Every structure is written in structure tokens, then in C-alpha cells.
Amino acid sequence: MTPDFKGNKKNLPSKLCQQCGKPMTWRKAWAKNWEQVKYCSERCRRMPHPAQP
User: Fold this and answer.
1) Exposed, middle or buried: residue 24 (CB in 10 Å: 0-12, 13-18, 19+)?
2) What is the pLDDT of residues 6-29, one digit of tens each?
3) Based on the number of CB atoms within 10 Å of its own CB, is 42 exposed (0-12), middle (13-18) or buried (19 or more)?
4) Which of 8, 19, 28, 30 is spaced 20 to 30 Å from 36 by Cα?
5) pLDDT digits (tens, 9 = 90+) for 28-45
6) CA–CA separation, 14 vs 24, rounded Å?
């Protein structure tokens, strides 16, 4: 197998959830709005935001 086969997920972009800090990996469902994705789940989106110092 070549290192650039279609199922290779190591090269996908990722970022941290703004609520819990978990790493999120790019998903096809987020392809159109990846720049606006802030939370890893609905649960994190609904939680109150931590207070900013």
C-alpha cells in the first residue's frame, strides 16, 4: 500500500473544541464551513461558555 491511499486520515486538518478542548478532526459534513466549526458536539455547543478573564 502506498502512504497516500484514500483512507489515510493522518493528513486531515484538526482543531480544538472551544468548550472542552478535545481535538476535532475534519469531517466531510463540515467541508463547507470548517472555518466556522467551533464545537465537537451538540453537547458542547449547548453548554454555557466558560468565563473569559
Assistant:
1) buried
2) 667 778 889 999 999 999 999 889
3) exposed
4) 8
5) 898 899 999 999 999 999
6) 5
